[in-house]
Amino acid sequence: MAVRRIGYDRHTGALVNGEIPDTAIDIGLWDKWVIFSMITLASWYEPGNWRGRLMRISYTAGRQKGLRKSVYDWGVISCLIPTWDLVKAFRTGQVAQDEYVRTYLELLRQRWEVVDEWLHSLVPEEDLTLLCHEREGEFCHRQLVSPLVTEHRPDIDVVLR
Predict the structure, then answer these.
(1) Backbone torsion region of residue 54, taken as left when φ is above 0, otherwise alpha when ψ lies between -120 and 50, otherwise beta
(2) For the chain, how many structural domains are there in total?
(3) Do 128 and 92 share a structural domain?
(4) Domain span holding position 60
(5) For 86-95, what is each residue's pLDDT tens digit?
(6) How far apart are CA 104 and CA 54, in angstroms?
């Protein structure tokens, strides 16, 4: 059986055969195909960024204009949803961003058993989009979930939108 070097370019998303550039993950396979999974963290207002199964990681306000279906029809990962009190305090300016970050990370530590169970339940063959309210470019707890997944599941690519 011939050895074929295959990599996945993190910047372009292209499958690379043969010469592996510095931006690629070299997975050095024997002649066989590999399915790469990806978790995308995106706003529910930007469906062009969605990929795979949709999972909600935030509170919702019901049907949003222009969405394909109700956000209540999506799956929910409740262990990643910040408390409503924290969300309200941040939106009204009662809590600054750095305090929000500390409080949310502490919440994840308190929920760690369930968060860890969710991380281990991820299937490398399945693409997911974790959806939240804030638009791309705005501060959001998606920015805190992204490194969590990257650290604990290096076999899954994470795209933050």
Answers:
(1) beta
(2) 2
(3) yes
(4) 35-160
(5) 999 999 999 9
(6) 22
